[in-house]
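re the bet — no i am not wrong, look at it urself. input seq straight from the record:
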Amino acid sequence: MPLRSSANGFPYVLGLCLAIFLHPLFAAERPELTRLLPSGGQAGTDVQIEATGKFPVWPLQTWSSTDAIRWTCGEKTGNLQAHIASDATPGLHWLRLYHETGATAVRPFLVGTVPEQLESEPNNRVQEANEIVSVPTNVHAVLAKSRDVDFYSVSMIAGQCIVATVDASNGLKSPIDASLQWIDPSGFVVAENLDHFGLDPSLRVIAKQDGKAILKVFGFPAAPDSTIAFGGGADWVYRLRIENRTDTPTAALQQLPGLTNAVTLELKPDIALDRDSAISVELPASIRGAIEKTKQSRYLKFMAKKDKDYRVLLSAREHGSELDGVLTIVDAGGKQLFQKDVDSDHRDPDLKWKAPADGEYFLEIHDFHRAGGADYPFQLSIWETFPNYNLTVMSDLVRAIVGKETEIEINVTRELGFSGEIDVSVAGLPDGAICPPLKSVNGSETEKKLSIRLKCDTKTQCPISIVAKSSNQAGEIVRAATTEGSKPLWLSVEAEMQ
C-alpha cells in the first residue's frame, strides 16, 4: 500500500510511526487498582465487582490470599467476579491483580455471612435514603467525593434493637475516619458514634415505636489535615453492617489465638465481685465474663514470680461489647501497682507488667464509666511472657528489575531484652533467584535493621514471605515479617524499560 501524499498524509504517517514506537512503552505500563465495589460478598455466592484503576491490558491475572475465593476477569475492562465458597472464613481477605509488566496494590475484600446490597445514588438527603431491604444485611458503599453523605432507612417495630457498624479504616483499610448517626425523619440526631473499633463507629438503636430509623454515614480523612468539611474520594469505600441484636455478644468472644494450653473459665453472675471472693486462676488462663451491673467490678487472683513479665489482654469492644474496660493490678496488701484503660491503637486495654516480688496478686476489671449490663461481656487472657522479637518491612510490594540487585529493608524489634541471633531468609522465590540469608546479631549493626539483597534473572510475579527463626526460654520462635496493615508480601520482577 503506497504512502499517502496528500496534505493530510504527513500527520497520518507521523501518528502511525509514533503509535508503533510508543506501543512497547504503553504495554509495559503497570496496572493500578484503586477500588473494588462492592468491597465484599456473602459466603456461598458469586459477586459482580467493578474494579477501578488503570489497566493498560485486560484481562489481568488474579491472586487471592485464600483458596476459598476464586476470581475471574470479565470481558469488559474492570469487570471482576468473585466466586466465594460457602465455607469461606468470614472477615478480611486480599486481592491483587498482576501482569508480566507489574502488579497492583493489594486490596481488601470482606467476606460476610448475611445478604448484601450495594449503595444506590443519590442518597445524600434524608428523603433519598436507601431502604434496607432486610435485617441483618451488609451494605457496600463509597463516599465518592468531598462532602459526600449517605443516608439509609431501616423499618423497625417498637422494642426492636439493631446494631449498625461501619467497617472502613479498621475493616477495609480505607482512609476514612467515619462517623455514624441515628436520626429521626425530621433530621434530629438521636445518637451518634465516632470511634468504636479503632476509627470505625458502631451504634446501638432501640426503636421506641414502629417506624423508620435513619442512619447517616459521613467521614473525615483518617490522616488529619486542614480539612474541616466532610471528606470523600474514589477509595473511600466502607461496609455498613446492620444486625438484629436479640442476645448479648458473649458468644462472639472467642478464645484469643496464640495461647496454647490456656484454661477457659466462665465467670458466673454474682461471684468474684470483690477481692475476698476473687477467683484463683493458673497461668496461662483465658476467662470470659461480664460487667453485669453499674459500678460493678470483677476480681481474679494469680501467683506471680519476681522480675517475671506478664501480659493481660482484655478483648471486649473488638467483638461488639459495650465495655470500655479498665484493668488494675493490686498486691495482697491492697496497694494498686498498675492500671491500664485504652490502648494506643484499640479501645481495649493491653497490659504489660513485671512482678516486683513473688506472691499473690489481684486483677480487677471494670468499666471506665462505671456502667454495666448484659451487653458488657469480656474475654480476658493472662500469661507469662518471654523475650521475643518481631520483623517489619515498609512496603508489601517489592519491585525489582531483571538482572539487577534490589534491597529489602527489614526492621527488627527486640522485646524484653531478647538477645538471640535471628536467622532471616526469603521464602517463595522463583527458581534461579539469588538471595543469601542473613543474621540479626544483638549488639551489631544488624541488631535493629537488615538489608537483604535479591536478584532475579527472569521476569516474575509471585507472593513471597520473609521468615525468621530463633529461640528463647519457651522454645523455637518462627516469625514472618509483617507490613503495615498486615498486607501480604509480593515480588514484582519487571523488565527494564528501554
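see?? Confidence is low (pLDDT under 50) at residues 1-27, 254-260. told u. also The domain at 32-112 is CATH 2.60.40.10 (Immunoglobulin-like). so pay up
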